[in-house]
Design goal:
Blueprint: E1 12-15, E2 23-26, E3 32-34, E4 38-39, E5 44-45, E6 53-58, E7 64-74, E8 79-85, E9 88-94, E10 105-114, E11 118-126, E12 132-141
Antiparallel strand pairs: 1-2, 2-12, 3-6, 4-5, 6-11, 7-10, 7-12, 8-9, 8-11
């Protein structure tokens, strides 16, 4: 049987070969939002204050190391974004962009050791003009540390 992560549809898709750890893509509509955030099928918008948080509970994730990627469209303001799972966290800086809203970008925000049940949270330390529009969070299997 293939190993797959379980989140409420249409929360995630899994990409890769059956029976292997595969990429898990967490979608905007599945996120639990707080603060002034607005979600749609395509993105989470309005990252304009420090109380903006999006969270995804994920069950049945094959345990192991994962790179956490944020896929986003840059905003005019930029700012810091924190990615967290229980006792692990990492902060990444999203640069401001004169070309806000033009092109989707991706940034590796963290590498975490994840268990079968997680609650992945993305929080922003935003500027009033907005950090970004978050289009997806991807969990990509990472090789073991050297």
């Amino acid at each position: 049987a293939a190993l797959t992560a379980t989140v409420d549809a249409p929360a995630a898709t899994r990409v890769g070969r059956r029976g292997e750890r595969r990429d898990v893509v967490l979608k905007p509509l599945a996120a639990e939002l707080s603060g002034p955030l607005r979600g749609s099928e395509w993105a989470i918008r309005s990252w304009t204050s420090s109380d903006c948080t999006a969270a995804w509970p994920v069950r049945d994730l094959p345990p192991g190391r994962y790179h956490v990627f944020l896929d986003f469209v840059p905003g005019h303001g930029g700012g810091e974004v924190e990615v967290r799972d229980l006792n692990q966290s990492a902060t990444v800086t999203i640069p401001s962009s004169r070309l806000a809203g033009r092109r989707t970008k991706s940034i590796r925000a963290a590498t975490f050791e994840l268990g079968p049940s997680i609650r992945l949270t993305v929080s922003a330390r935003a500027r009033s003009s907005g950090v970004f529009e978050l289009t997806a969070v991807r969990l990509v299997p990472a090789p073991p540390p050297k």
